[in-house]
Amino acid sequence: MGDRLRVEWLATATAISAHWSDINPSMRAVWAGREMSVRSLITSRLKETWAHAQAVYDILGVDRISRDRIKGIAALGVSTFGWSFRVGKMEVPAIVPHVALTSPSGEIWRWGPQSHLEIISGSAEAFCQVVTQVRNIKDVRLNGVGDVAQTWMENTQCFAGAPQGSPPPGTRFRI
Q1: Residue 128 belongs to what H/E stretch?
Q2: Contact 86, 152 (CB under 8 A)
Q3: What is the rounded CA–CA span in Å between residue 171 and residue 138?
Q4: What is the pLDDT of residues 26-38, one digit of tens each?
Q5: Among 131, 31, 115, residue whose Cα is nearest residue 71
Q6: Which residue has the higher pLDDT, 34 or 54?
Q7: Distance separating alpha carbons of residues 25 and 40, to the nearest angstrom
Q8: What distance in Å separates the CA atoms of residue 72 and residue 46, rounded to the nearest whole number?
Q9: How far is CA 95 from CA 30, 85, 100, in A?
Q10: Which residues pair with 87 in a beta bridge?
């Protein structure tokens, strides 16, 4: 059953990828009631697949091996800074934290203005886990310096819909 499901999933993913590869990434499309660029739509679907797969890894007790392909998920997490506050009915801060993440290959990925007062740093995988809400900020090695950075990571949400809380500490990780 598992092999057949994997083969069918790969065939469908390949067909969908071929379809999307011919479309202008800036074109607007509607997904789940929201209009977004095709690039954002595809990145969001990858983010969902990546995030939901984490639950499978956790249940199976298998350590995930991330690759630099998670950069799109990290970038989506950074780009939804304002959304995280708006969806939580909070005022969007004027200060945007600097984000410095270590990629799986060891490269440093940076977003936002340089700052020593508001910064988020650590592994890209941990950041992706927090912004997709598969981990609580207290369960990963991610450093948040400054009130804005800490509030963002405690309330981050890089997906559409009503505000969702992060999982309680200690409930979403492999022991």
Answers
A1: helix 124-131
A2: no
A3: 11
A4: 999 887 777 888 8
A5: 131
A6: 54
A7: 8
A8: 8
A9: 31, 12, 16
A10: none
